[in-house]
Amino acid sequence: MTIGILYICTGQYAVFWQDFYLSAKQYLFPGTTKKFFVFTDAETLYGEGTDANIIKINIEHREWPFNAVLRYEIFDNSRDLFADCDYLFFYNSNVLFTNTIALAEILPTEKEARLVALSWKDVAGTNPDKDKLNNAALGNDADKYRYDRHPASQAYVPYGQGTTYYQSGFNGGRMEEFVEAIQTCKKWTALDLQSNIIALVHDESYWNKYLLDKQVKTLDLVYGKPEEWAWPANAKVIFRDKNKVLGKKNMHRFKREKRISFWTKFLRTFEKPKEELPPPLPYQYLPMEKIGGTHESNENHQVFFVSFADTRMRKSAARLTQQAIAMNVFDEIYILDERNLSVDFLSKFKDKLRGNVRGFGYWAWKPQIILQVMERMAEGDVLLFTDMGCHLNPERRNKMLELIEKTKTASSGILAFQMRRNTEKWWTKGDLLDYFGVRKRTDITESGQVAGTFFLLRKCQAAEKMIREWMAVFENNFELIDDSLSLSPNLDGFREHRHDQSIFSLLCKVNQVTLELNHCRTLKSEWKWKKYPFPIQARRDKK
Fold first, then answer.
1. Better-scored residue on pLDDT, 288 or 180
2. Cis omega (within 30 of 0) on the bond before 367?
């Protein structure tokens, strides 16, 4: 029986190799022939030249996270070297074997898809140190697992799917099945990189997607325990604490440098001419469907409610839906996510709509979803938009009805809410003030900013024109929205740009939108929620 061990150690991680190798020789699969395929940039390796079963494959040291992101490509490029192996197993560079592991303990059967994986799922509630590791997927609530929830990614796992989350520090199987897994994950990785997408937990995300519909041999903490965890005492494999081996200060510096390097170099590294990019495929487009609305209107005009959040905020969506139904003023309720965005919009903004971008694309989706819902409205119908973090207070239903009536008579067709203490010039950068030509208008710059968190509108020509003007800024000059530095000077007291809200606020003032100062406000403490029971409460609640 010939066993192939896949091992990557580039840069400073080469320091782990000697202990890994010696402990594997002593404890791992006694009585078998073990071939160590070592992917490294080190000039020399311990044991090289004296052990013919150490096969060194030279690779370059890539900036983080690309040794992980491109792991399957690294392996597939050398798959011909594995041809005489019966089984292949990958181990993290910081693995140390501490007790004998017989091959029979690891080998997966045909019923187990000839694949083996490591999971920490079953330690929930038993290990007091479980929260120390960021990537641990613990517990039995699959919706809390660190699957990649972004539909743009090839590693996408929808909420409600998956029963076991697998760690990437160890995996493997029979040579044929594991190579097939490697090639599939390599293909998914390449498709994502062509779209400038990095999976949430890199190679681990693709591994979990590949195993989603498979029953595989699943190993527990005995075969892969973080060194800093005291439990279980009988672990045969530990993941060594990198802070201890490499030094805590070095690790902090290294992680900081990796973060800077990745985010400053990634898009440039993978930038390609537009004609070379594949057509955008990342999203499963779902037509908008009404999901609620129990109010039976006796009038000709209906009232719509709409909110949006990407699929990671599933619980918030359920909570806000129930509040909207309980308010009993809405004829139609729409709680949308990225799958409901129009195909044209997704194509235009696909490089912005990511979970690691503020506001899932600096809130570019906000005017878009409003325009999409307005297509379903008749002239004179009223729409309430709120961010997903808001709460609706059914006990203030009468006040909500008053606001709806005001919207029906607003000359601009829009009823918005102005903050008393957040002066416009503090939260809007100079370039945007110049874009609208209002830098010298103190009636605008010295007045409170208008909230983009919630507002009402009546479908009419004036309201639709203003929402399209809002959308046009995103389409024509994204630097007016994002956190890039202003080319023109900011006004005195500037603190931070407020993105979509800054645009919406200036448009409201320029178009003389009807503004309210009360009834809906952001409050920070629970006692204030009870003291000021507004119909809309801007809590920024993500659950």
1. 180
2. no
